[in-house]
Amino acid sequence: SIVTKLHNGVLGIEIARSEKKNAMTAPMYSAIATALRTANADPSVRSVLISGQPGIFCSGNDVEDFLTNPPNVPSAPLFEFMQALSGCEKPVVAAVTGSAIGIGVTMLLHCDLVYVAEGSRFAMPFVALAIVPEFASSLLFPRLVGHVKAAEKLLLGDAFTAREAVELNLANAVLAEDKVLDHARQVAERFNSLPPDAVRETKKLMRGYDSVEVSNAIALEGRVLSERLDSQDAKEAFSAFLQTRKATRTV
Q: What are the CA-CA distances from residue 130 to residues 166, 197, 222 (Å)?
């Protein structure tokens, strides 16, 4: 479900599970983490390109897998993925078409350049599922867009468009759907002509000031998420999701 290919200095990481709308599983998280660690260690990799399938970037976690393999320890594949992406030393470019939900959005906060298709939709419905934001989004998203805008997206779970993603500084540009991947690849290939040490050190400077705070936020969110997964509200919300019905609230 994760396809990797190194071409012209760009390590492509493709989320390829279209039959499940690119919902993420524990093995998929581990596969991406391995690819990112490989990118760090391989001098022939000058950049990383993350993409989904035509019309779908990532619909979040696979709920059944998420409940079967809950991320309740720091070594869980979900956190392995988070550590690998937030700590990636190479520039990371993302090409988004279709929907990005949950971690499909929060992972973009850890990419360096993001290009989105017209018609793409974004949402972080954590609270509606009786859980909390992850991947340091409770720290980074308010910093990026301001508290009140972040509250719309994280507390209320309001969806937003590709144009809004650019306005919120989550993405660089909106392109036609059939142009996004090619454009993102062209941008990723530009790093072939730039001094790799200067690129790496510049990214480290840009990201390094927040690295401890990001790690702490990921850990804190993870602890709260684990607690929430054991709550009656979360169990009911996930059960309702799987049964395609409306959740019954306890209060």
A: 28, 44, 14
